[in-house]
Amino acid sequence: MKAAVVTSFTEPPHYQDFALPAQLGEHEIIVEVLAAGLHPRVRAQADGTHYTSTDQLPLVPGIDGVGRTAEGALVYFVLPDTSLGSMAQQTVIDTRRSIELAQDADPIQIAAAMNPAMSSWIALRRRISFTPGQNVLVLGATGSAGRLAVQVAKTLGAGHVTAVGRGVDALRLLEADVTVALESDKNAVTNQLGDAAKDVDVVIDYLWGEPTHDAMSAIIPRRTDDAQSLAWIQVGSVAGAEAAIPAAALRATRLQIVGSGQGSVSTRGIVAELSELAKAVSGNAFMIEARRVRLEDIERTWTEPATSQERIVVVPQPLPEQGRTRPALA
């Protein structure tokens, strides 16, 4: 079969032949891949920089996708760490890590939205005791996953959402109650954050690094009620792998810092959330722009500049135009 094959961590994947395994495990089946998202996590997998990466080559990138079983069922699947990912005409899935979709579900829409929406959905549903009506701040709200996090928080019943990120124009288009642009003067950002987020209950943090230090330093001294709990969920580290946490922040309020990602939530816990998330995606609860590209064009597509406005979806098989993916926020 044909696949996107990584033969070097310093080169983009090449469109070439790749063999399916000769034997399958007890819960494994082969599916025809209809759509696979080119997520940042997939790029990190292909260049060997993700924390789960090994030195095993060659490999087919892709961590999730939509496929068709031999019986005709449409499924969304999440792959384990494997050398045979989803960017291939066929792949091997573990049925315990997949869910069946409605036959009229749009494979492009599902492949584009599930992974970026999953980060905030899992964070709110599995890493803390989030309740409707709580106030949420998204730090890094203009990135692809951050934009969806604003919508996920609203969908799950957040009472008030503050979006913090770069790009004034992009922030204006978010469905947030308040926005704070990080390009502003540092004192202005501190004051805006302190005013807008002094009563926040949950922070979903895609930045980490210096922005996290600055945000904590701005928010915590201005808390209306020091006894009010503050759950800080670290999801991404776009701005740095390390953040200097002010010591006073740990003493001055009921601060809880947790991470959300592969390992901090069990596979069983993630799979348990997939059906409800897929229903929300299929029900157009979230806006995301998807751009489909053919599998044979993977090498050229890989080297194109990535944007936060769209999610590239690799299509190994011809698909009809369904036109169900909603327009992007920008």
How would you name the CATH homologous superfamily of the largest domain?
Medium-chain alcohol dehydrogenases, catalytic domain
Q: In the CATH scheme, what's the topology name of the largest domain? A: Quinone Oxidoreductase, Chain A, domain 1
Radius of gyration based on Cα positions = 20 Å
Q: Architecture of the largest domain, according to CATH? A: Alpha-Beta Complex
Structure characterization notes:
The chain is of the alpha/beta class. The chain folds into two domains: 2-115 and 279-315, Medium-chain alcohol dehydrogenases, catalytic domain (Quinone Oxidoreductase, Chain A, domain 1, Alpha-Beta Complex); 116-259, 3-Layer(aba) Sandwich (Rossmann fold). The protein contains nine helices and 15 strands. The protein has helices at residues 40-46, 107-127, 144-155, 168-172, 186-197, 209-219, 247-252, 267-282, 298-302, and strands spanning 2-5, 14-17, 28-37, 64-68, 74-78, 90-94, 98-100, 135-139, 160-165, 178-181, 202-205, 229-234, 254-259, 289-294, 310-315. Strands 3, 4, 5, 6, 7, 14 and 15 form a seven-stranded mixed beta sheet that branches. Helix 7 (247-252) links the parallel strand 12 and strand 13 (254-259). Helix 2 packs across helix 3 (144-155). The radius of gyration is 20 Å and the shape is elongated. The two termini are 37 Å apart. Residues 322-330 have low confidence and may be disordered.
